[in-house]
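F.,

This is the one I mentioned.
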């Protein structure tokens, strides 16, 4: 059996730390594992399996990025790879495995600004209104496999601004009816409360009796009070709906209502932030509800335009008039 190189050994050590100490999400660990493992393998091929991590400099990293471009990777993919490598070398420097961090000398590839079009308030409200009849009940149509559940999915994604993964991760005890809030588990296993608005609450209450009926019919009584909120149609496995299924549901229904083909669950989260900002909500309040660590992320996320900045200034600053 070939001896493991120092590059591979240190990469595995970093990934274990990421998973155990930092409580990184499964998605993050999987992405970092791919990128860091690929770069460690590249170092082994370039410097030899007996090579030392201290011999790696910024030119090796730049050469690796060049190789990724040769393989047809986009600038966005190369930037993700570089971000993972940077995190690895930052950790190596912090742990005194290297004298200095060579990744700091490598600039991030400039990415084109692709801001997805956010549907207007009228478009989103029109879609949601079309999913219910005059009595407030979900409309039975071909686009929705389970109308009451699917309407609730839209109301929670748009009404609470939560991520797809946060939606499917909601369990019954997470719904705080007394406080009109939902406890969601965000990135990095961080938890936060998001407000549960009237329309979203009504959609949840309309759906719950059907959820209970289906669980009882499937003999899964143990999941009634403790199981996932959003269940799959067949009540198979642990009954929790997958993020992929949510994506298909959102796209199918959005298309059936005449919205753009690129609408997905994250589009509704974009719309939540953008529409709240347009209605005068405080940017930091939106940041808190979206679960962003940095305000700059929220600013970019909500499509904060120069016009909006000027309007907020004109309306709020005492010396603007």
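My design for it:
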């Amino acid at each position: 059996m070939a001896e493991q190189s120092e590059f591979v050994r240190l990469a595995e050590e970093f990934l274990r730390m990421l998973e155990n100490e930092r409580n990184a999400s499964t998605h993050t660990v999987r992405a970092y594992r791919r990128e860091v493992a690929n770069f460690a393998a590249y170092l082994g091929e370039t410097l030899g399996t007996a090579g030392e991590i201290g011999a790696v400099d910024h030119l090796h990293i730049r050469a690796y990025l060049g190789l990724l471009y040769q393989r047809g990777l986009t600038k966005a993919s190369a930037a993700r790879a570089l971000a993972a490598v940077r995190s690895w070398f930052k950790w190596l420097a912090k742990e005194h495995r290297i004298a200095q961090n060579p990744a700091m000398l490598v600039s991030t590839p400039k990415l084109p600004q692709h801001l997805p079009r956010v549907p207007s308030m009228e478009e989103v409200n029109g879609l949601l209104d079309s999913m219910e009849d005059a009595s407030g009940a979900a409309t039975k149509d071909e686009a929705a496999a389970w109308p009451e559940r699917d309407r609730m999915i839209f109301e929670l994604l748009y009404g609470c601004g939560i991520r797809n993964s946060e939606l499917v991760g909601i369990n019954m005890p997470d719904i705080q009816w007394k406080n009109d809030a939902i406890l969601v588990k965000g990135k990095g296993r961080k938890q936060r409360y998001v407000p549960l608005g009237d329309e979203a609450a009504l959609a949840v209450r309309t759906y719950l009796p059907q959820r209970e009926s289906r669980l009882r019919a499937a003999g899964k009584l143990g999941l009634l009070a403790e199981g996932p909120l959003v269940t799959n149609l067949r009540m198979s496995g642990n009954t929790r709906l997958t993020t992929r299924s949510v994506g298909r549901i959102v796209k199918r229904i959005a298309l059936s209502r005449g919205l753009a083909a690129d609408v997905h669950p994250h589009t509704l989260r974009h719309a939540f932030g953008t529409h709240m900002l347009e209605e005068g909500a405080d940017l930091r309040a939106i940041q808190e509800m979206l679960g962003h660590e940095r305000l700059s992320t929220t600013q970019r996320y909500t499509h904060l335009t120069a016009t909006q900045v000027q309007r907020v200034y004109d309306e709020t600053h005492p010396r603007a008039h």
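The longest strand covers residues 181-185.

Talk soon.
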